């Protein structure tokens, strides 16, 4: 049965969602907007329809005309041809709309503007055969924002976002020009913003619906932790996934950010608990789109999710309830955090760096990989202590290891990028680390010496490493542009790269 829904037009409070650059600060209050509810015909009978689920797909219509008129030709070309297509392809493959738009998504001829821009004529004439219209725009401003996202229209029935706008700060976005690390970073920024546009926002939580399309209640919780009132989002299946992940059966949902301004707070996962998950605030090398952020989108009641598109995420895994509820004084109880200015490997194993504070993790300290010590950096040998032994570059199958290896007797702790392989299972798991022409086999946590060198390499626990840091997977499940085989992307014709993000 198809339900035709009445029109409602309501001014909304500020709900700008922005993305910060490097220093993890978000300033969301500088942009105002009004949000309206749009009368559309939503196919309410589609929920649970096997035909809809089998066909998959999420019809996203990207609108680039504003980019063409505001950005330089080189930046516009990068945004239109390289940056957004793989980002959009990911969501079109990973999500299916539960209540799709029947017919075309269309505005009345009397709507003169949306999101501070003249209404695209196509929305007032034929409309578009889509479930989500994404207007992409650019401007130039001072400050550290890379982009911000606005909702222009929500559906009057299910309240699902129908039309959103991403505004890119031209001063903060550099075309990758073949730099695959920069391209990945830029993609994660835009995928982060697209998630906001799809409903990952404190202003949308109140409109989440249940399995019958009815407005959900009681899922936005205020909980006292260490003397502060914190926001948790409790929706299925997200809460159950989180309880299993942390090993905390009493967890009341996803702990949301409480710092960074009015729209950063509650519109992102708490950085202390979800470090390097793509829906925390700020920029981190090696981010992951995990089943947690996809779980929140499914919990909205607006989407079905294919969790094959979730990337491995193990920060805080199995650490118990106190990992979420503990005070900053307990940070050093967990290996995810560090103390002082020690050097070590980032939690996701992508590279090495020094222990630093982070304004969004409640006084804890973490290690982030520096660019020079990032195992994905193909120029990493230029900064390495023993460059001839190490391997760098995306797809090179190397991870970060700590040790004191050196050609001299006096050596300090540093990090290395070595190739590795895992074998066996359970307690018989072995980790082989390739150090130049030599192989060190780790069967337990400890230190190993290497013939011909002073110092040693630190062996992680083989089973833990091989199930987390060393787990082989297809980044972003090949973005729907290929198939994943034994942890490697087999890209469709026309695409290349470890995640099929590049056009041939």
Short description:
This protein is α+β, with helices and mostly antiparallel strands. Helices cover 17% and strands 24% of the residues. Strands 2, 3, 5, 9, 10 and 11 form a six-stranded mixed β-sheet that branches.
What does this structure look like?
- The structure is a single chain.
- The chain is α+β, with helices and mostly antiparallel strands and 504 residues long.
- The protein has four domains: 3-198, Elastase, domain 1 (Roll); 220-345, Leishmanolysin, domain 2; 371-467, Leishmanolysin domain 4 (Leishmanolysin, domain 4); 473-504, Laminin (Ribbon).
- 17% of the residues lie in helices and 24% in strands.
- The protein is built from nine helices and 28 strands.
- Strands 2, 3, 5, 9, 10 and 11 form a six-stranded mixed β-sheet that branches.
- β21 and β22 form a beta hairpin.
- The longest helix is centred in the first third of the chain and has 22 residues, at 73-94.
Cα end-to-end separation: 44 Å
Rg on CA atoms, Å: 23 Å
Poorly predicted runs of 5 or more residues: 1-33, 50-55
CATH architecture of the largest domain, by name, is Roll
CATH level 3 topology of the largest domain: Elastase, domain 1
Number of strands: 28
Instruction: State mean pLDDT (0 to 100 scale).
Output: 89
Number of domains: 4
Give me the number of helical elements: 9
Helix residue percentage: 10-25%
The structural class is alpha+beta
Query: Main sheet?
Result: 6 strands, mixed
Dominant shape: globular
What's the level 1 CATH class of the largest domain?
Answer: Alpha Beta
The share of residues in extended strands comes to: 15-25%
